[in-house]
UniProtKB/TrEMBL annotation:
Enoyl reductase (ER) domain span: 10-328
Presence of keyword NADP: yes
GO MF annotations, alphabetized: NADPH binding; quinone binding; quinone reductase (NADPH) activity
SMART domains: PKS_ER (SM00829)
InterPro entries: ADH-like_C, ADH-like_N, ER, GroES-like_sf, NAD(P)-bd_dom_sf, Quinone_OxRdtase_PIG3
Organism (species): Zosterops lateralis melanops
SUPFAM superfamilies: GroES-like, NAD(P)-binding Rossmann-fold domains
Protein name per the record: Tumor protein p53 inducible protein 3
Keyword annotations from UniProtKB, A to Z: Acetylation, NADP, Oxidoreductase
Length: 331
């Protein structure tokens, strides 16, 4: 089979399409013929040698995929049959023609949805769902500040916050991205390059601040995050785009607000945790992707690249051009 590959860590120019051995499904696994995958920041980090796959996971890029069931491994429960349209959360291996998946990590592709649209769901939407419900325990009426609001996780989080009857507030770096987040349901949005988002959040919340902050930036935002975090608020860090080294009186300021810091990574979680997450998402959120559902959830596809153009896709994400997900179509 063909797969996205690189021989040594480095820039996008190292990526190419390589013929590799097709995997065989093991006990309780399903072989999926992949029609579309999606690009994530983790793929860029892995390509540069900064984020190796978990032990035992495929070294091929791709944390999500959509396709059809090609083969059932031994011991499968009968939940799936050959030909079923499925999408999957993966620790790696999604940007290839075939990938093996534990049957408990598969989800049905919603009706009336293409594989290209479905590939935009697993990683971003499950990550956002996990951050909000498993980690943040979001409650109705709470204010949720979402950094990188126009990213895949950000656009998913906006809609999931609305589904939870809470209030999404976002930051983004361009007016175009802020307009896209407003269309997705953000109650307020602020350009972090042109204004102090912490002051704007406090103004919008009439001084109360955000009850939950979903933060993929880290160190460079810590002071502003604490400025606008509510008393007893939850600051959830799931990325470090702005660095990880903090200089200042973080603990005293955190203590003064009785606030908590949570950190979360999804890729390194064990299979049992991911299966529990997939079950909860399938029951609570997935029905809202179907036509006629109210409220309706919709994945946002920014652009589509063929697998042989994988280097171009990486460059587009590195330049922060995308609003929503970058999809990789598999030949």
């Amino acid at each position: 089979m063909f797969a996205a590959y690189f021989d040594r860590p480095g820039g996008p120019e190292n990526l190419y399409m390589k013929e590799v051995v097709k995997p065989d499904p093991g006990e309780g696994e399903v072989l999926v013929r992949v029609f579309a995958s999606a690009l994530n920041r983790a793929d860029l980090l892995q390509r540069t040698g900064k984020y190796p796959p978990p032990k035992g996971a495929s070294g091929i890029l791709g944390l999500e995929a959509a396709g059809s069931v090609a083969e059932l491994g031994p011991g499968c429960s009968g939940r799936w049959k050959v030909g079923d349209a499925v999408m999957a959360l993966l620790p790696g291996g999604g940007q290839a023609q075939f990938v093996t998946v534990p049957e408990g990590l598969l989800m049905p592709v919603p009706k009336d949805m293409t594989y290209t649209q479905a590939a935009a769901i697993p990683e971003a939407w499950l990550a956002a769902f996990q951050l909000l419900h498993f980690v943040g325990k979001v409650q109705e009426g709470e204010r949720v500040l979402i950094h990188a609001g126009a990213s895949g996780v950000g656009m998913a989080a906006i809609q999931l916050v609305r589904l939870a009857k809470a209030i999404p507030i976002v930051t983004a770096g361009t007016q175009e991205k802020l307009e896209a987040t407003a269309k997705a349901g953000a109650a307020a949005g602020f350009n972090h390059k042109k204004e102090d988002f912490s002051k704007k959040v406090l103004e919008f919340t009439q001084g109360s601040g955000a009850d939950i902050i979903l933060d993929c930036v880290g160190a460079s935002y810590w002071e502003k995050n604490l400025n606008c975090l509510s008393t007893d608020g939850r600051w959830i860090i799931y990325g470090l785009l702005g660095g990880g080294e903090v200089h200042g009186d973080l603990l005293a300021r955190l203590l003064s607000k009785r606030a908590t810091i949570h950190t979360s990574l999804l890729r390194s979680r064990d299979k049992e945790y991911k299966e529990r997450l997939v079950r909860a998402f399938t029951e609570e959120a997935l029905p809202h992707f179907s036509r006629g559902a109210s409220p309706r959830l919709q994945p946002l596809v920014d652009s589509v690249y063929a697998l042989q153009d994988i280097a171009k896709a990486h460059r587009a994400m590195e330049e922060n051009r995308n609003i929503g997900k970058i999809i990789i179509e598999i030949p």
